[in-house]
Design a protein that fits this description.
Order of helices and strands: EHHEEEEEEHEEHEHEEEEHEEEH
Oligomer: single chain
Distance between the termini: 21 Å
Structural class: alpha+beta
Helix content: 10-25%
Bound molecules: uracil
Shape: elongated
Length: 240
């Protein structure tokens, strides 16, 4: 037996909180009867519907993708561009999965995809502060002072970013560019690009290396993916 809003969230209907609102609004039925009370428990055999449309109980799946450049981090694109979900679909994945958070069109690297709406919503919530590591190639070479500014927080959209870890990896021979590792817990829009721009070093290339303890070992580059191992899923669940 599971709480109705949890079952709805896991089926990818909406977050638990948004599901509670759907229940309160009288839009949810269990075995044909409208339920407006919170906390009702259901089993997998109960027929749950939202606005009359039955929710699907797919097996929960978790994938790790090495996102290539030039692909959209969403399930659909209005302009018909290739999405991260298309990559897995082309390889035969049939579940209604979607990415956990976003990487920009031109950003490469580690991206989690799942149909476990409940876990996805939690992982994306700033409260849980999942640690992510990025490697950025930037214009110019960062000074020690700029590295310190990044560590302490810089102003992005009128709000200071949370403390970050930084490491200068290398400077190009001509001193025109450098590579820096940045570890952050937040996931604000274009966060890494905006942080580096704020200290005067626009990003030329961006790659995400790790997501919590997950990394890209065994997933060389450009659209390779694998399913998460059960203990990796467990670790993510324990995190939130
Ligand atoms: N920060 C960015 O600026 N872009 C990404 O794709 C991810 C983090």
């Amino acid at each position: 037996m599971e709480r109705l809003q949890k079952v709805m969230a896991e089926a990818g209907v909406a977050s638990r909180r948004a599901s509670e609102k759907l229940i309160a609004a009288g839009r949810v039925t269990v075995n044909g009867k409208t339920v407006t009370q919170q906390g009702v428990k259901v089993t997998k055999n109960d027929q749950v519907a939202v606005d009359g449309v039955p929710i699907k109980h797919e097996p929960l799946k978790y994938f790790l993708l090495n996102k290539p450049r030039g692909v959209i981090s969403s399930a659909h694109d209005d302009k018909g561009r290739r999405t991260v979900v298309d990559i897995l679909k082309e390889d035969g994945v049939e579940e209604r999965i979607y990415p956990v958070g976003r990487l920009d069109y031109d950003t490469t690297g580690i991206l989690l995809l799942t149909n476990d709406g409940d876990l996805a919503n939690k992982l994306m919530h700033p409260k849980f502060e999942v640690e992510k590591t990025y490697i950025a190639k930037v214009r110019g070479v960062l000074t020690n002072r700029e590295m310190k500014q990044l560590r302490q927080g810089v102003m992005v959209d009128g709000r200071k970013t949370k403390p970050a870890k930084t490491k200068l990896l290398e400077a190009a021979d001509d001193w025109q560019s450098s590579r820096v590792r940045l570890t952050i817990h937040e996931g604000r829009y274009h966060q890494v690009k905006r942080m580096l721009k704020a200290v005067g070093h626009p990003v030329m290339k961006l790659h995400r290396e790790t997501y919590d303890t997950l990394n890209l070992v065994g997933l060389p580059s450009g659209g390779q993916w694998r399913e998460l191992r059960p203990q990796e899923v467990k670790k993510l669940k324990n995190l939130v």
